[in-house]
Specification:
- The complex is a heterodimer of chains A (661) and B (514).
- Chain A has 661 residues and is an all-alpha fold.
- In chain A, 73% of the residues lie in helices and 2% in strands.
- In chain A, helix 14 crosses helix 17.
- The radius of gyration of chain A is 29 Å and the shape is globular.
- By secondary structure, chain B is mainly alpha-helical.
- Chain B has one domain.
- In chain B, 77% of the residues lie in helices and 4% in strands.
- Chain B is built from 21 helices and two strands.
- In chain B, helix 3 packs antiparallel against helix 4 and helix 16 packs parallel to helix 19.
- The longest helix of chain B has 32 residues.
- Chain B is globular, with a radius of gyration of 22 Å.
- Chain B starts with a helix and ends with a helix.
- Classes of the chains: A mainly alpha (661), B mainly alpha (514).
- At the A-B interface, strand 2, helix 5, helix 6, helix 24 and helix 25 of A face helix 5, helix 6, helix 11, helix 13 and helix 15 of B.
Chain lengths: 661, 514
């Protein structure tokens, strides 16, 4: 039975996007006569309605697959008839993985849309903003719901486009910086996309299909039979390369901190809660492929751990509020890949979900702060804001607490599950566990440093000119909902020692069963397992580290900038390296961008102009007389051209006659 | 109404009317041109709809005796197969928009310009619709002459240099092809094939042994490679594109270059499959190299029209790469990409032309912040750029994807090399877009720019819609070509079999033995 209404899930936001675009066109036309015309609230309402409808449909679908049915499928869209056995048909598939993801995307997305309706009020591009935002949700849903890799790729590049458009939304501000950031995001993502394409081609030539269901069957057979091991590893690594671009992993993460040039709701929705988790989605979707290769798993885990550490440490010394959150996001995405590389598919999705709650909350809270501070983003110039914006303060603190993994909050459970799994795998993964644990300490520290610098201490801004104010309810209500979710969201994945069912684990089991079977097969029937005692020890260790470092981060910074200044003067080199994110961006410019530019110049000036054209010009000089004659022909008389053409035709005919005989 | 002769010669008739009409009012002349090209476009689309894509044979054929060369009879013979029907339709659809765009940049010697434009349309349609080799060559030459004049008279400040360069390159190509044509007809006649009918010659030539195919293939292939243009024959393109008026650039990018890729497919691979199989690695390498080379070249440009021209070199690299992969996917992608490139690059030239008419500068750094004053322009420009960089959902993706997967099936290494073009394409086009549209306004002249007017929107909007439609429903186009391309792949596979099994044994001799 086909469920064609599934197409409505992405189609509704698309419709919303078109309606908003029409409203924007109307505003533009109105501005021709009245340059000060402000867009109305219609676009925001349209976009929110579209989101609410999509969320409702996702809920309905989710309800349908709670029972016996494991997935719903729509009829296919016959897209690319490539011939020779290649026939791309895309269907929308709502299964337990895409259902959960779609619910997060539309649910958190709905809250962010509501918030944005307040945040973007008064912006000249209000309607355009919502057109882009709704289009983004459309593409994200296509990415998640497609039952075929090519369909996923449509969404994959589509969200990249929307990210590009929204990072560059304020393209004429900041000396053109948003335009640069947008371009960088698109290009770096394209590096990943190129890997994705190659991985897709490799899978097609190996298995002759790009439909997930068939692919997984093929991979399972190959992995169980021990065939094509090299191909599977290579395909997994290529697709992981794609994931590194979209999900901002080392070495392709440098675009994400720059992407903060976009409006804050965009950072919350695209660059924290949804788009950047696409890579994790892809790996979970193809979990048997990764499970089949020890090398791929280790690389995924190692890159994840390294990214978590590099970005987590960089977050320590950022002064830009959104910059702290950006590096924190990269670091948390690293955790998710660490989970995937440990075979902890469920833990990865668990962290995707909890992170969507608390990081969206933190970004929106930061937006509220920046809004209230009249576009000030430097935490050194804030302080004492808890007195001015209490609702933002309380909700933001909930988010920070969840992020830092304080016991019993959502982030605590998801992070603990990841670290426990990594520990249980053992071997080289123990080292990665250590890195993860250390990063957890950094996370707690920078989260509370941020809270302290923003909300505590003295006001470090000019109180006479800057009057911080609390945001309107349209912005603070979404904050409260997200704060509640951040606090209790962990309930969907309580650890085994609590002796309650792991809801998410049971839910996702049909999706990850094949991957786990392959893992079990490869390890000879021994899946990683922890004793309850060990689990309690790890839980305790995690709690102690989170509490200790949170305490440290908070108390060192709650009374002003003394600790900040002291660190800068005591460790100038370390401070420089950390605030510069270990110089990786500059290394890119020196190692990649500059050489490519040089190569381009070399090709254009030397090879093309000097060598090839030089030779041509020499010939042209020889034929100069012919050219002069041509000029004489171009006298503007149609009759003489006709004569010329006729003469030419006669010569040609003569040549034929000669050749024919 | 499905008459290829009517379709092809209607523009020539229009040229005659425009040339001889006593009325000196430019608007009347433009009106006639627009009317004629529009009628041709409607005829082209109806032809497209009536075409049966599952058949490999030529359709809408017409044949009349023309003259004889010795014992060989030359026919006036028209007909289209699944490959040429797309190019005929593309040509027919593009021309009214070109005619409409000329209003913005052709103000001198208008009558003459319109005559050349219409004559050129006849030439281009004839190239794709002719089913006789001599007729094909005739139209090939007819289509070139008008461009010399359009470039030489209405071009930019270095038009003479560009025209001479274009002339020299095409002359070299034409002479080479003429030699190949003469040799082919001569050899076929010696073997008893006494007609210049392309299908007949193909049947004969495709079964000749490899050594007999080699030189004929080389002659045709180099002639067409110059036209494509394939590295290292590409340098005429940048100058011609840069110096040509907008309408010339659009025709050049949209249709004329496709005559080269069309020729490679029909005469290179179709007629000489054994030689093509042998030369395929070389052409694939040149194609893949061209993708990256053109992209690097584009990155270094400061002149927007030159940049778009270099991007053409890169895009046509894809077309050649996919074609010589000789797989179903590669060939389908290659043919589709011919259409896609015509639309997206045509759009870029049309849009930049609109800007050039306002500011009279091609230097990218003369702009900046244009999006703030010309939001409609910015929308269409970004749309065209996205189509050009192959964003899924728009036309460019389907072609590129099929080409790359088709290439991967035969050469993963070259596919990997070519896939970097996906990255480089984003680099140069988005960087140009940023410098053109985004940032703060740096030149005061930019502040007073007027957004696209209704005429300009009427030109670009339908073409953008077409890009979107092909991106979502490419099957409509692909299915038109499937019959012809499947037959082509079959021929190549059969040839490959005989090359492996028979080790260059002439298959007709085998038949004789049987």
């Amino acid at each position: 039975m086909t469920h064609d209404w599934l197409w409505l899930i992405p189609a509704l936001p698309l419709l919303g996007s078109l309606l908003c675009a029409l409203q924007h066109a109307q505003v533009l036309r109105g501005r021709a006569t009245n340059p000060d015309l402000q867009p109305g609230v219609g676009a925001g309402a349209t976009a929110i309605a579209a989101m609410a409808a999509a969320f409702g449909l996702c809920l309905r679908g989710f309800g349908d697959i709670v029972g016996e049915t494991e997935l719903l499928q729509s009829s296919s869209w016959a897209w690319i008839p490539g011939g020779g056995g290649l026939d791309i048909q895309v269907a929308m598939v709502l299964d337990r993985l895409s259902g959960a993801m779609a619910l997060v995307v539309t649910g958190v997305g709905l809250l962010i849309h509501v918030y944005a309706a307040g945040y973007m009020r008064g912006d000249a591009g209000y309607a355009k903003f919502f057109a882009f935002l709704n289009l983004f949700v459309t593409m994200m849903l296509v990415l998640i719901l497609s039952g075929n890799m090519v369909g996923t790729f449509v969404g994959w590049e589509g969200v990249g486009l929307c990210s590009y458009l929204l990072i560059g939304f304020w393209y004429d501000r900041d000396g053109g910086n948003p335009g640069h950031a947008a371009q960088k995001a698109f290009v770096v993502n394209r590096i990943g996309d190129a890997c994705f394409l190659l991985g897709m081609f490799l899978l097609f030539t190996t298995f002759g299909t790009l439909d997930y269901a068939n692919l997984i069957e093929g991979i399972r057979a190959a992995a169980m039979g021990g065939e094509n091991a090299g191909t599977l590893t290579l395909a997994a690594l290529l697709l992981f390369g794609g994931a590194c671009g979209k999900s901002a992993q080392f070495p392709l993460f440098t675009w994400l901190p720059d992407a903060m040039a976009g409006p804050t709701p965009v950072s919350a929705l695209i660059h924290a809660a949804t788009m950047v988790t696409s890579g994790i989605y892809l790996v979970i979707r193809l979990n048997p492929l990764f499970a089949a290769s020890e090398v791929a798993l280790f690389l995924v885990a190692a890159i994840g751990a390294a990214t978590a550490l590099i970005a987590g440490s960089s977050a320590l010394r950022q002064r830009d509020l959104k910059g702290i959150l950006a590096y924190s996001t990269v670091s948390q995405l690293g955790y998710m890949f660490l989970a995937l590389g440990s075979g902890a598919w469920v833990a990865a999705l668990f962290h995707v979900i909890t992170h969507a709650f608390f990081k969206a909350l933190l970004f929106l809270g930061a937006g509220s702060v920046i809004h209230g501070m009249h576009e000030e983003k430097d935490v050194h110039k804030m302080g004492g804001l808890r007195r001015h914006m209490p609702r933002t303060f309380i909700t933001f603190t909930c988010g920070a607490a969840a992020l830092s993994g304080l016991p019993l909050l959502s982030g605590f459970f998801s992070k603990d599950e990841i670290l426990a799994h990594t520990f249980a795998v053992g071997g080289a993964w123990w080292l990665l566990w250590g890195v993860g644990l250390f990063t957890a300490a950094l996370t707690a520290y920078y989260s509370w440093r941020m809270v302290a610098l923003v909300f505590f201490g003295e006001e470090r801004f000019d109180v006479a000119t800057v009057h911080p104010h609390e945001s309107p309810p349209i912005m603070t209500v979404p904050l409260m909902v997200l704060a509640a979710l951040s606090l209790v969201g962990g309930i969907i994945g309580l650890p085994a020692v609590f002796h309650v069912p792991h809801l998410l684990g049971e839910w996702l089991d049909p999706v990850v069963r094949t991957g786990n079977e392959i893992l079990e097969h490869r390890s000879g029937g021994h899946l990683p397992h922890l004793s309850h005692t060990m689990e309690w020890i790890l839980l305790g260790l995690g709690s102690a580290i989170a509490l200790g470092c949170a305490h440290l981060g908070f108390h060192r910074n709650k009374n002003g900038l003394a600790a900040e200044v002291a660190f800068e003067t005591d460790h100038p080199k370390l401070h420089g390296a950390l605030s510069d994110a270990w110089g990786i961006d500059r290394a890119y410019y020196a190692g990649v961008v500059t050489p490519v530019r040089f190569l381009a110049a070399l090709v254009a000036v030397f090879i093309d102009a000097f060598c090839i054209d030089g030779a041509i010009n020499a010939m042209a000089d020889a034929a100069k007389r012919a050219g002069t004659r041509l000029k004489a022909f171009a006298d503007g008389q149609v009759a003489s051209y006709g004569l010329w053409m006729g003469g030419g035709a006669a010569v040609i005919a003569l040549l034929w006659a000669l050749g024919g005989n | 109404m499905h008459n290829l002769t009517l379709l092809t010669f209607l523009p020539a008739l229009g040229a005659l009317i425009v040339a001889l009409l006593p009325n000196r009012d430019e608007r009347v002349l433009r009106g006639i041109t627009l009317f004629i090209t529009s009628v041709v476009a409607v005829l082209g689309v109806s032809l497209f709809c009536a075409f049966d894509g599952s058949q490999a044979a030529l359709q809408f054929t017409q044949s009349v005796d023309w003259f004889t060369l010795g014992a060989t009879s030359v026919h006036y013979e028209m007909g289209v197969d699944g490959i040429s029907i797309l190019l005929v339709t593309l040509t027919a659809i593009l021309m009214p928009f070109v005619a409409l765009s000329s209003l913005g940049h052709i103000s001198e010697r208008t009558r003459e310009f319109l005559v050349w434009l219409l004559l050129m349309e006849t030439g281009m349609l004839g190239v794709f619709a002719s089913a006789d080799l001599v007729l094909f060559y005739f139209f090939w030459e007819v289509s070139l002459v008008p461009l010399y004049f359009i470039l030489g008279i209405w071009g930019g400040e270095r038009r003479l240099y560009a025209t001479v360069k274009f002339f020299l390159f095409t002359l070299a190509g034409s002479l080479l092809m003429l030699l190949a044509v003469i040799a082919l007809i001569g050899q076929a006649a010696a073997d008893g094939v006494l007609s210049t009918n392309i299908a007949g010659l193909t049947d004969w030539a495709s079964t000749t042994p490899l050594e007999a195919q080699f030189w004929l293939f080389a002659g045709f292939a180099i002639a067409f490679a110059i036209k494509v243009p394939l590295f290292p024959f590409h340098t005429w393109l940048a100058d011609a594109h840069t110096q040509a008026p907008t309408s010339g650039s659009v025709i050049l990018a949209g249709v004329l270059l496709k005559m080269g890729t069309y020729g490679l497919l029909r005469f290179g691979i179709g007629m000489f499959p054994a030689a093509a199989i042998n030369a395929a690695p070389l052409f694939m390498i040149l194609g893949a190299f061209g993708i990256v080379y053109g992209a690097l070249l584009a990155m270094a440009q400061t002149d927007m029209k030159r940049l778009i021209a270099c991007s053409s070199v890169s895009h046509l690299g894809y077309v050649v790469l996919g074609m010589f992969a000789l797989t179903h996917a590669g060939l389908r992608g290659s043919v589709l990409q011919m259409i896609n490139h015509g639309l997206s690059t045509g759009l870029l030239f049309l849009l930049f032309g609109a800007l050039y008419e306002r500011r009279h500068s091609r230097a990218i750094d003369q702009y900046g912040g244009v999006a703030a004053v010309m939001p409609l322009f910015a929308f269409f420009w970004v749309f065209a750029v996205l189509s050009s960089v192959g964003l899924p959902g728009l036309n460019g993706f389907v072609g590129e994807w099929l080409i790359l997967i088709g290439t991967f099936q035969t050469s993963p290494v070259l596919a990997t090399f070519a896939v970097t073009g996906v990255i480089f394409g984003a680099v140069y086009l988005l960087s140009a877009t940023r410098r053109l549209l985004f940032g703060e306004i740096t030149h005061d002249e930019t502040r007073s720019l007027k957004d696209l007017n209704i005429r300009e929107v009427a030109i670009v909007a339908p073409l953008c819609a077409l890009c979107l439609w092909i991106g979502i429903q490419p099957s409509v186009l692909i299915e038109k070509t499937s019959g012809s391309l499947d037959a082509l792949v079959q021929r190549v596979e059969d040839t490959r079999q005989t090359m492996v099994v028979g080790d260059l044994v002439d298959p007709r001799e085998e038949e004789g033995v049987r």
